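Sequence in, structure out. Go.
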Amino acid sequence: MYPYFCELWLEVLLSLYVNFCYDGADLKIYCQGIAKNTAKNIMDFVTTIGLCAGTLTTIAFLPQVIKTWRSRSAGDISLSMLITFLVGLCLWLLYGIYLQAPPVIISNFVTILLNLIILWFKLKYK
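Output:
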């Protein structure tokens, strides 16, 4: 519904704009400007969502690191889970690098570091 409404609204505005202001050549330049600004705003919004998601999922892992460090015990944490999670994070990091997506790169890099800390605790306090 939302994309259709936006397209309809844009079509009405552009038709009014064409009728009152510009000929065809100027309209093409104007439409390219609208498309460029709209795409930039959408990408900024999507990047913000990605950064928020990455921050929250990374912070969610932090209490486990703190608890393991304070208790000096990682017995309740599954080694296979940590290794599987680490491999998944590395794949996400590669994917983010390939897409050149800072939210994916940053959040997965930090989470890899946190996971490695817990893995080190797991092996040290065994």
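Check: The longest helix spans residues 24-71. The helical segments are 2-20, 24-71, 79-99, 102-124.
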